[in-house]
Amino acid sequence: MTNLKTIVNPTTQSRLKEVDFESLPFGKIFSDHMFVIDYADGKWQQGYIMPYGDMPLSPATSALHYGQAIFEGMKCNRDIKSGDVLVFRPEQNALRFNISAARMGMPSIPVDIYLQGLYDLISTDRDWIPTREGYALYMRPFMFATDPMIGVRPSDTYRFMIITCPVGPYYAQPLKVLVADKYVRAFPGGTGSSKAAGNYAASMYPTVLAKKAGYDQVLWTDGMTHEYLEEIGTMNVFFVINNKAYTPSLDGTILNGITRDSIIQLLRHKGVEVIEKHINIHEIFEAHQNGTLQEAFGAGTAATITNISAIGYKDQHIELPPITNKLLSAELKANMNAIKCGAESDIFNWLVRI
Ligand code: COI
Q: Alpha carbon of 322 to those of 6, 212, 308, 339: distances in Å?
C-alpha cells in the first residue's frame, strides 16, 4: 500500500513577495513548492512536497528521447465569500490522466494519490492563489519516463510531479486561426485524445508557419480530407450558428476537454441546443456567407473561453462578427468565472472545497 501521507519539506526562502499578482504572464512564475512521487519496483513510492527547483536527470532519461510523457492542466480559485480554496473538477483530470497514461504504456496513478498530492500542494502554497477576476492558480500534474536507458521500450520507472503557477489569461486577445490543410496533429489510432507531450511537439512547427502567415493558432483538421475540424492547439472549439452551438464530436483524435464538457453542460442548462458532430470547414464558411455564423470560440483550462476573430483556410479568409459582451461566449465566460470563485452557485457540483 502506498503511504498517502505526503512528507513536506518547506522552503526557507519564499518568493511570494517578488510576485506582482496584478499582472501575471501565463506559465512563467512558479509557486514555492512542488509535489514529487516516483514509481519504481512496480509501485508508487513515498510522495514529497519540496521547494520548487531544478532536479538532476540522467542524459539518458528515457522521456527525453522517446517522449513517454503526459500532463494535465487544472485550476483553483478562492471562494470570494469564505476564502476557501475551490478546485475545478480535479477528479475528472485525474481520470483523464490515467487514460493518457494507459495509451502511452505508463503506469496509472491511483486517483487518491493524485488528489492527495494536489490538495497537499495547494494547501502548502495557498497564498499563491490570485484573487483578481479571471486569474487562478494553474496546476500542472505531469509524469515522465525516468529509466536512464536509450533502448526503445516502456520505462520501468517514472516520476509524477505537480507544479503550480499563478496565472492570468492565456490569450490576451481574440485569436485568428488558420485551418490546417497540410499538417496533422492526430490520426485515428494515434494519441490525439491523450494529453501526451508529443502531441504538442508535433504542433509547434505548423503553428510557427501559421504565425508567419498572420494567424495565432492552427485549427486542426482530420488527416484524411483536411476538411473536418478537430481542435485548436490548446483548446477545443465551438461555433454558434443560428443560435445553436456546434462542437466536433469526440472520436479518438480530439482531446476530451473538461472545459468542453463543462461548456456543453452549461449551454444545455441554458436551453441552448448543443450538437456534437463532424463539422466540415465548408459548413462554417457557408454559414458565414449566409449570415448565420454568429461566433466561434475555443474552450480549455488555460485558455478558459477565447473568442475567434478570423478563420483562414487555403486562400479564403473570413472575419467573424464583432466580439461584444452580448455574445453567448461572453455569458459563458462570466458564468464559468463566477462558478469557479463561488459567486454563482455550483449547480453542477464541479468544485472541491479544500
Ligand atoms: C490546458 O488548458 O490546461 C492545457 O493543458 C493546454 C496547454 C497546452 C496550455
A: 50, 24, 10, 26
